[in-house]
Amino acid sequence: MIVLPSSSDRAWPWAHLNGAEAEAVFAAELPVIHRHMKAHEAALKKRSDQGRNWWELRSCAYYESFNSTRISYTDITWRPSACLIGPGVYINNTSYCIPGEHPWLLAVLNSAVMWSYLWRHAQHGKDEALRLFSDFVETLPIPTPSAEVAAAAAERVAELTTLTRAQAETNPLLLNWLKFGFGVKTPPRSLSQPMALSTEAFVAEVTAAMRAAKRRVGPLDPQELAQEHTQYAAAQRQRAARILTLEREVCALVISAWGLGAEDVELLRRTAPPRTPTGLPLMR
Rounded to an integer, what distance in angstroms lies between the CA atom of residue 173 and that of residue 154? Predict the structure, then answer.
């Protein structure tokens, strides 16, 4: 993503100039980006939300929030998906941010209890997606935990964040390895989710992709591919098992903070809405 804040928000080398003079400095300072933007100049100039110069983004009062850790959630959601985002990560509409780490808030927002509440109170959109408008999110009920519960949740949320990030990175890492190690620069759709394949299917798909790319399949290549896929799959299974355990523990902590009794939990279990977080105590 290319982020070029308006000269009103950032002291670019061309910020004190206008028109052609500003663009000349832009081209000298960032020649590759200038060439890329220049190809879209006509369309960029038609924008009503541009910055002081046609290649810049509109003025924004909250750029600093992108340089801090925050919780992000989507306005249109099909499942609990609040996540922690670190500094330097930019997001588009329709994702929104809550400043700060707030592990307890992250635990509650992703809990099966909260999903049950959202399903019953949030506005439903197309295909039964939920709409999390800001004025609605600001009124969500968040229980106040004891110090012990908050500390236990924070410890588990930190580990969940690490494990979830590792799970998300598995496919890109494996595809990058195929690109540089086996010449599969443009993986076919069948390899878009390599960890969803069995080891045998993975080896067959990669060797087929290698032949399609006119890359020779060496006698040891299938063995190396199988070993690597097996190792990745084993690590992913271990993380998935640990994630499931941690999610159940976090859900139990959220339930305790809300003061829900056995009858309440049973009611929530029996009336659990679609896409309730997998493996949590409130599943049917």
Answer: 28
